[in-house]
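ARCHIVE RECORD
Type: protein–small molecule complex
Small molecule: 5'-O-[(L-methionyl)-sulphamoyl]adenosine
Source of inputs: curated submission
Record status: active
Notes field left blank by submitter.
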Amino acid sequence: MEQKKTYYITTPIYYANASLHLGHAYTSVLTDILARHHRALGDDTYFLTGSDEHGIKNFQSAADAGKTAQEFVDEQVQKFRDLFKLLNISYDQFIRTTDREIHWPGAQALWKKLADAGDIYKGEYEGLYCVGCETFKTEKELEDGKCPLHAKVPEKIKQENYFFKLSNYTARIKEVVESGELAIYPETRKNEILSLLNEGLEDVSFSRQRKDLPWGIPVPGDDSHVMYVWCDALSNYISALGYGRDNPVLFEKFWPANLHVIGKDILRFHAAFWPGMLMSAGLPLPKAILVHGLILSGGVKMSKTIGNVIDPIAVVNEFGLDAFRFYLAHEINPFEDGDFTIEKFREVYNAYLANGVGNVTSRVMKMSESYLPERATSLEELRSARKGDFENRYNTAMENLKVNDAAQIVSELVKELDEEIAETQPFKMIKTDPEKAKEIVEGLVEGIAELARLVAPFMPDTAQKIEDAIAANKMPEPLFVRK
Ligand code: MSP
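STRUCTURE (tokenized, with ligand):
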């Protein structure tokens, strides 16, 4: 029997310090669309997401909320799970870095590997630490003395820590990035990381003293230190698969990952720290990283101070989940920054969903219901009738991770079906040449079956409703009501 291809895809794990906003929702929806597409292709797909719960940021947020760190993250994580349920994120596993049974053994086993390779050493460090980024910053990276991402002056931290000899791996990382052995999409991000590699990588402070931060995974062999939050977090991609535990079946089956999906703000950690750690441990590298842009609101970064933070739950409540997912896929090029305003959302909703997917489905199914009451073709037959150009271009777009192009192909299909109805006018022809009209409507139903298949990764519920309507040979309730 032919073995199915495996496909392991991940989101970053989200900081448990605050509620997730539209930007985070974008990472999850984008990853979910790709995961669903691979399942539809028949790949044995594994989709991992989760929460990043250690580090200074989470610890401080818990203190600000007057809670213990564990209480605080437990509550946050419940909200994350609820949001992912609402967004219909089809993950196979949700990993938590506070999980002592699943995550800790993996993170500690990986640390031991780095130590065995001679890549962990103790050193004194003084630097400027941005809690928002959970990383040290160089003077050069600051603007007016502040972290440009968080508009905050970083804290001066001086302490004795364990270090990871990342500098050892600069040349090898550069080689794999350049050759594409570790593919980085898009090209602009690949170039960005190559220029960082050309400057040479510095060793990374990889632990914090427990007396300063009593919240983290103990460093193997030295309980007075906890692991640096990025060292802890990155290992989730393998700890989730059982790395460091007995009989890691998933790890053997799915590692290396096919794709890590991340935002551009965390490129360096994934394209420099992570491959360095894996090289040191002698483990295979992920095959590719998709680095998406940031979602802006009205052209500017979402921020509480500006008051333009968009809450995904509010949008979903007003327009429905599938419309929300479709907007993110159709309107945002994953390779660039994207924009989201409610005005733009409404336009897209009306043009492509209410007057597009929804309208064409109703029209075709209405004709099918009236003119073809005996229609007996199965969904399977209908589906395979139209495998061709749209599907090929769609699959290529998905393969190239251009999810927006794939979503636009859906809109092209809708347009083609609309044009076909306008040109042939089967609702008139039914009176003059009923046989021909029926044939045309049958063809249009095939088009709608294709539409259901192509929209499925973006709008799973809508796809199901379309297929149900086809199976019942009935016009569905309006899929999208004009707003
Ligand atoms: N905990 C780290 C990731 C560790 S992975 C081993 C982290 N968490 S985060 O919660 O800050 O961000 C998670 C994801 O959300 C990242 O991919 C980040 O790029 C994305 N986004 C956060 N704000 C965003 C926008 N405004 N727009 C698009 N994505 C953004 O980083």
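CURATOR ANNOTATION: Residues 12-15, 23-24, 26-27, 52, 233-234, 236, 262-263, 265-266, 294-295, 302 surround 5'-O-[(L-methionyl)-sulphamoyl]adenosine (CB under 6 Å).
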